[in-house]
Amino acid sequence: MKDRLQALKEEAASSIESVSTLEQLKDLRVRYLGKKGELTAILRGMKDVSPEERPVIGSLANEIRSFLEQEIAAKEDQLEREALEDRLREEKLDVTLPGKPYPVGSIHPLNAVIEQVEDIFIGMGFEVAEGPEVETDSYNFEALNIPKDHPARDMQDSFYITPEILLRTHTSPVQVRSMEAKEGRVPVKIICPGKVYRRDDDDATHSHQFTQVEGLVVDRGIAMSELHGILATFAEKLFGMKLETRLRPSFFPFTEPSVEMDISCVQCGGDGCRMCKNSGWIEILGAGMVHPRVLEGAGYDSERYTGFAFGMGPDRIALLKYGIDDIRHFYTNDLRFLRQFQSV
To answer: Which terminus, N or C, of the chain has the lesser number of Cβ atoms within 10 Å?
Structure first.
């Protein structure tokens, strides 16, 4: 039996050395060391061995089993390393080859202006409020002191879905909704950026869809002087320069008194140029003190509280800020135009 065990050891060692795949090595393990393997088959003959030789044969069988397990483990490590090296050679990449450039997008110039406006007002303590773009006639007009027969409705020329539902013509409904949500509490200090819609012929300075940013402040003792101070500060931060500002009387149904704010021309500094039509001034927004009827309709006592509101078009501001001559560039997705603002 000793001879059979030694012969098995030599045969198995030679077979293990000659295998070239892990699958073949697995088959050898089963063949020699499995429950029905050749080593087990030899040991079944232990019943024919004398009692004196059995310990010797058992010890030799264990040594051979341990030897073969070590040989198989070593061969397995070798084959795994070789397989890894083969895979690395096959998957080798030449890292010196030039890469494939992928175009990187950037923020749209109009969105850049809106975000800058938001950052300026947030820095002055305002919160950003949002509301639905599909609005009711009540919020879009009547709550803002614009009844159904008011001529200001003709100026808006709206997109109606039903007689009482329309695409909002301004973001002012968000102001009303915000005041109602406060349930008469103060302060209210918000800006409302968003898209608005009006029936208009698209040209270099008009679009049927555009953006607005409106603001609202309601509290005790709010005065027109605070409105002027906030808007002047805003204009200087937005254009990054010292600007002159002026307020001119105007009319909006939801504010009284109402004004429009001009800034000294950002291109000529007030000397007069093509941009400002040689006037030295450029209009950038409308504003005014919130009309008492609007306050009362939103649940505020107009005898105790006052407020101001303002509204501006980021499209127009972006035209001025970047010297763009046609508002339609913002909406045509022309990459030649958009690539000019990758660093904005």
So the answer is: C
